[in-house]
From TrEMBL:
<keyword id="KW-0413">Isomerase</keyword>
<feature type="binding site">
    <location>
        <begin position="122"/>
        <end position="128"/>
    </location>
    <ligand>
        <name>(6S)-NADPHX</name>
    </ligand>
</feature>
<dbReference type="GO" id="GO:0005524">
    <property type="term" value="F:ATP binding"/>
</dbReference>
<dbReference type="GO" id="GO:0052855">
    <property type="term" value="F:ADP-dependent NAD(P)H-hydrate dehydratase activity"/>
</dbReference>
<keyword id="KW-0511">Multifunctional enzyme</keyword>
<dbReference type="InterPro" id="IPR017953">
    <property type="entry name" value="Carbohydrate_kinase_pred_CS"/>
</dbReference>
<dbReference type="Pfam" id="PF03853">
    <property type="entry name" value="YjeF_N"/>
</dbReference>
<dbReference type="GO" id="GO:0046872">
    <property type="term" value="F:metal ion binding"/>
</dbReference>
<feature type="domain" description="YjeF C-terminal">
    <location>
        <begin position="208"/>
        <end position="464"/>
    </location>
</feature>
<dbReference type="InterPro" id="IPR000631">
    <property type="entry name" value="CARKD"/>
</dbReference>
<feature type="binding site">
    <location>
        <position position="62"/>
    </location>
    <ligand>
        <name>K(+)</name>
    </ligand>
</feature>
<feature type="binding site">
    <location>
        <position position="342"/>
    </location>
    <ligand>
        <name>(6S)-NADPHX</name>
    </ligand>
</feature>
<dbReference type="GO" id="GO:0052856">
    <property type="term" value="F:NAD(P)HX epimerase activity"/>
</dbReference>
<dbReference type="InterPro" id="IPR004443">
    <property type="entry name" value="YjeF_N_dom"/>
</dbReference>
<feature type="binding site">
    <location>
        <position position="294"/>
    </location>
    <ligand>
        <name>(6S)-NADPHX</name>
    </ligand>
</feature>
<comment type="function">
    <text>Catalyzes the dehydration of the S-form of NAD(P)HX at the expense of ADP, which is converted to AMP. Together with NAD(P)HX epimerase, which catalyzes the epimerization of the S- and R-forms, the enzyme allows the repair of both epimers of NAD(P)HX, a damaged form of NAD(P)H that is a result of enzymatic or heat-dependent hydration.</text>
</comment>
<feature type="binding site">
    <location>
        <position position="405"/>
    </location>
    <ligand>
        <name>(6S)-NADPHX</name>
    </ligand>
</feature>
């Protein structure tokens, strides 16, 4: 199966437009349904073996896909049954139901089967399932040994990761034509253990894509510590956070790391310590200036943040610094910026609303002029020009203190490294850092602490060379 790395992500409206474009060129809805049903049937047959399959069909075209898959599976000798919520409504689904030509059981009365295929409702669902339908789905899913959702698990919204009604856990989701936001955004993404994209011969394109493994290069033969990228980390009230960030920057590929104003003695010898002052952060060799980890929110913190904002250095802003800013203040600054907020910091800076995490991050990037790394179990990276990268779920062991500081230092390192021989590309730097952070967590195994995570960064980089 093709990996998900780099694949486009389409909203319900964008996928519908792509399908309509194909239909406008002469492909009928029924012909497209045949393609989908055949692709679904091939996957189900590969996984089901000789086990009986129960396909649940809804009233729309997703249900029609299920009827086509059932017919093709039966023709191939698979034991297959169909249960439905009622009669199909679209012309293509009605034709598919007629072509099935066998009994259709009532959903509420259907007996379980070892393999369950959910073709009830796919892309575009706008409201939750009725209690009776949701209950029947839960009952049949709980009794199955293998559960497969067609396009999206029924009950999940397409574009924002919401669960509109209770949704069972699925072993596999077969995304039709392209990934949708809810294949990656939580909590909907957690309902599928695995997602496969089925090729249904519909060309798709999007400004949003899945985070891919970066392709990194070793330092050139005549590299030196300054040419490899210099990072300066502004320390503050909680020195441990800035030490973690500086350590991550050093292990993340930067050739020279400065820790400015830190009081901790537990600093790796390779990290240079200096007083914080205007001259230190004005050094033109600095490829990325990081402010925020452990900064605090007192007057000294505000002064250090203001000094950092006043430089023309590429800037990474994290932690406490995000609580001391406004989008307007950020937009007024010249020069590349990357912000790395978690949900609470994002809400404090840009306001809380119920929109899609992708849309919220896009609006924040446009309003601030900064690249946004909206952290979480579904990290979204957006650029001011509208580009979006969404990370696959990383290790849940990342939910421990200090891992955000490690990410901030890693973002600064990649920004400095990428800008050492060219204009910095904040979106690329942020994407590299998020991928490496997730890979380091995978290599660290269970129950790691942030210090452990930083030590695995060289291994993660080695995987990309």
């Amino acid at each position: 199966m093709m990996p998900l790395d780099g694949r486009p992500i389409l909203t319900a409206a964008a996928m519908r437009a792509a399908e309509e474009q194909i239909i406008a060129t002469g492909t009928s809805v029924s012909a497209l349904m045949e393609r989908v049903g055949a692709a679904v049937a091939a996957q189900v047959r590969r996984l089901a073996g000789d086990q009986e399959v129960l396909i649940l069909c809804g009233p729309g075209n997703n249900g029609g896909d299920g009827y086509v898959a059932a017919r093709l599976l039966a023709a191939a000798g698979q034991r297959v049954r169909v249960a439905a919520t009622g009669a199909p409504r679209s012309d293509a689904a009605i034709a598919a139901r007629h072509a099935w030509g066998r009994d259709v059981e009532a959903l509420g009365a259907a007996a379980p089967a070892p393999v369950l295929v959910d073709a009830l409702f796919g892309t575009g669902l706008s409201r939750g399932l009725g209690t009776d339908v949701a209950g029947a789905l839960a009952r049949l899913a709980a009794a199955a040994a293998l559960t497969i959702a067609v396009d999206l698990p029924s009950g999940a919204a397409t574009d924002d990761g919401r669960l509109l009604s209770p949704v069972p856990d699925y072993d596999l989701t077969l995304a039709l034509g392209a990934l949708k936001p809810s294949h990656l955004l939580q909590p909907a993404a957690a309902r599928s253990q695995r997602v496969i994209v089925l090729d249904i011969a519909v060309p798709v394109a999007s400004e949003a894509s899945v985070l891919a493994r970066p392709r990194l290069s070793a330092p050139v033969v005549d590299a030196h510590k300054y040419s490899r990228g210099m990072v300066a980390v502004v320390a503050g009230a909680m020195p441990g956070a800035s030490v973690l960030a500086a350590t991550a920057a050093a292990r993340g590929g930067a050739g020279y790391v400065l820790l400015l104003g830190g009081a901790s003695d537990r600093v790796p010898h390779a990290i240079v310590r200096r007083r914080f002052d205007a001259a230190a952060i004005a050094d033109k060799r600095i490829g990325a200036l990081l402010v925020g980890p452990g900064l605090g929110r007192d007057e000294r913190a505000r002064e250090r943040l203001e000094a950092a904002l006043a430089t023309d250095r590429p800037l990474v802003i994290d932690g406490d610094a995000l609580r001391l800013l406004t989008p307007q203040k950020l937009a007024a600054r010249k020069g590349p910026m990357i912000l790395t907020p978690h949900a609470g910091e994002f809400d404090a800076l840009f306001g809380a609303d119920a929109g899609s995490k992708i849309d919220r991050a896009r609006h924040a990037a446009a309003a601030s002029g900064a690249t946004i790394v909206f952290k979480g179990p579904d990290t979204v990276i957006t650029a001011p020009d509208g580009g979006v990268v969404v990370a696959l779920a990383a290790s849940s062991w990342l939910s421990t203190a200090g891992t955000g500081d490690v990410l901030a230092g890693l973002v600064a390192a990649r920004l400095a490294v990428n800008g050492s021989n060219a204009m910095p590309d904040p979106l690329a730097a942020a994407a590299e850092a998020v991928w490496l952070h997730g890979e380091a967590a995978r290599r660290a195994g269970p129950a790691f602490i942030a210090d452990d995570l930083a030590r695995h960064l060289p291994e993660a980089i080695a995987a990309c060379l």
